[in-house]
Write a structure and sequence with these properties.
Largest sheet: 5 strands, antiparallel
Helix content: 40-55%
Radius of gyration: 53 Å
Number of helices: 10
Number of strands: 14
Strand order of the largest sheet: 1-2-7-6-3
Order of helices and strands: HHEEHEEEEEHHHHEHEEHEEHEE
Distance between the termini: 62 Å
Structural class: alpha+beta
Strand content: 15-25%
Number of domains: 3
Amino acid sequence: MRTFSVIALVSSCIVFFVFSLRLVWQEEAQIENHLKSFKGVAQQFYHQLSPTGSLKLSDNVTVYYGKADFTDQMKKLPPMALETVDRQSFEIRLSEDQILIPGVLVYHFAFEDQGKTIPTYITISSFDMDLWDDSWGVLMAISTLLMLGLIIVLRVTLKRVFDQLMAPISDLSTQLSKHESDNFKVPDRTIDELQMLTSHLNSYSKMKDRLAKQEMMFAKYASHELKTPIAIVIGAAELQAMKPDNPAFQTKQRERILGAANGMSNTVEVLLNIVKQENSSTEKTLTDIDDSSIDLSKYQAMLSPGVELVLNVEPDTTLNMPLPLVNMVLKNYIENAIRFTTKGKITVTINSNTISVSDTGSGLSDDTKTEHGLGLIIVKRIGDSYGWTSTLIDNAHSDTTSASSGCTATFARNDI
């Protein structure tokens, strides 16, 4: 604001002085034209009255025919060329401390009368036509005060405008520094650019939160899914040292280690696919699924006696996610079903829009919901990343006519 005030003051002074000079120049031109307008009158009166010296044409204008009747000041006039206008100043000392400097504006021309050339001087006093010096001072003082008033008004107005513009920015800065909320807000009357900035800040905030949740998710899921195979690897390695001379025992422990390592590799691939998909805007991977793609043999040993595991894959099934993710969904659904099913069967059904696992187990209760939910956290995250929804319902509360005991876990596409 201080810079603006200085610029405004300097520019106003320049404009004022230029305008004043223009007025002075225009005043001089008007006086010259005024004097020249008496040229014909001066010739006419000379011819009619034949004056010998001077003649007062008006209250302010005097014409001299020659220099005979010149006043003492006029006699000091230097030689002038014809058809010219000149201003002359004279010093009049009123007292020792007070000096008056009046002036006279003279138009000099000549005309012929009865064969004689008559030099003529038309004069006008500055006392009669010019503004007094004090008048110019008053005018400049008033103009300066008006400029200062205008600058003050503009400064106050601009300060209010800048304060209104900066208030939302200050508010945003306060919200950022204090972390008051995850959703930044500005008043509705704020200019569009600041509202757009606020929208971008909210987008970046959500992106930051999503990335933080992804990191936490990876650590949580890795801990949940890798803890068991790591324990298997450690236990098998320790058991190998107990019977170094038993080849069959060594082979069995090695197979356990390889199986656990492969499981960990698949789990890591799944987690990386989830994170990769959440940060990608490309098309989802299309995977063809058939009976040979799904291997349920590893779950057979986990089944209770008398429980049957059935797989139904519809022809031309295509899923929009990699096969490891499909296996991860099935792993969590099937292992949950096995855990709570002691008789009957577990049916796995897969088509292009649905993956479902239905069992005839004990169904859902307050005690089992938490246990089911542990493994389904990963399934829900996969669904969020690829556009699927995971649901778990109790068959006893199902609307189907064939409702029985147990529960059904369903993984369905959202765009169907």
